[in-house]
Every structure is written in structure tokens, then in C-alpha cells.
Amino acid sequence: MGCRGVLGSACCPVVSDTPGYVKEPSLAEKVHCVAFVVSGLEISSYSDTMKSTFHQLRELISALDIHQVALLTHVDKVCPKTASDVSQVYKSSPVKYAMVKASALLGMPLSSIVPVKNYSEELELDPHTHTLLLRALDHILQYVDLHLRDQGPERGNTGGYHSPDSVTAQRANDADDAQSVLSLAPKPSSLFD
């Protein structure tokens, strides 16, 4: 049957003999953050086996001191109100419920679940959708930044879990912090009121 070029799958695990495998990777060659992607449409249909698999994966990833985040997709399809106005995502009870379900499924804190809307049928870009996607990217980059700080020679490896709030607080203390990603996107005032 073969793996068809999919490395790391059950049929084709990555081992030390795998072409391109780096036995002693530099910091730049290591994984800095893992992003799980779960569909808001299917959040109630994941099996207990899948839940167990997610928890086992998270344990392995946590043992490697790698931060994790989850993107909850299709939030516009989870809630009719959000479908007509994605800026209402953080005010939507059905989206909040889907986030809580994703938190339980993955065994992650609710603060690590980030709602996003997929571009699927749109012909024009939407500032509200962009804002959600950029917030998700910023969330991931905060964890990457923290991982790099944890691995840096001046800080050592703390090996502990850091909440997004502590990541944000730590980043705010740096004068040279480049948080310009969000400044590029239009910020609808109604999105996070």
C-alpha cells in the first residue's frame, strides 16, 4: 500500500533511518508549537478513541516542552448569528459551547482554543475574518516566542506550562517586542467589545 509520501503517519513513522532525519537538531530545526485543528461542525462527533488519541498526543508533546494551541474552525457554521456577522464570535453561546467541547476533547484549557472562520466560498476578503485569523496567528506566535525564550541559553528550559495570559504579560515587558502582525489588520471595534 505505501505511505504516499506522508511522513509520521502510522504506516510510515519517522525513525532515525528516515531520509532527512536530523539526529541532533538545532533550535531552528525543532518544533516550537503544535497547533491542533478541529472542526466546530464535527466537535460532538469525535469518538472516545479519538479523544484518547488526542490526550496521548498532548502528553507526548508536553513531555517535550512544546506549547500547544487549538484552532476551532467553521465557527460561522456553528452559529447562524456568527454566520451573518463573524464579529459576534466571542458573544455567541453556540461557539462558546463548541470551544468548551474542544477543550474537553483535547484536554486543553479553554484559553488555548482559538475560534477561526474558514475562507471557503468568499470572493472578497473580509476584515472580521482576517482579524480572527490574525488573532490565531498571534496566539501561535506567542507560544513560539515563549518556547524560544524557554530554550534560550540565558533563560534555560523552564519545562512548565504557560497560559496565554502569562505569555502576553511576558511579551508586554519587552520593549523591543514586535507585535506588529495585528497592527496590519483592520480592527473592527465591535469584534471584541
UniProtKB/TrEMBL annotation:
Q: Where is this region: Disordered?
A: 152-193
Q: Highest taxon of the source?
A: Eukaryota
Report the record's Gene Ontology biological process terms: immune response
The protein, known as: Interferon-induced protein 44-like
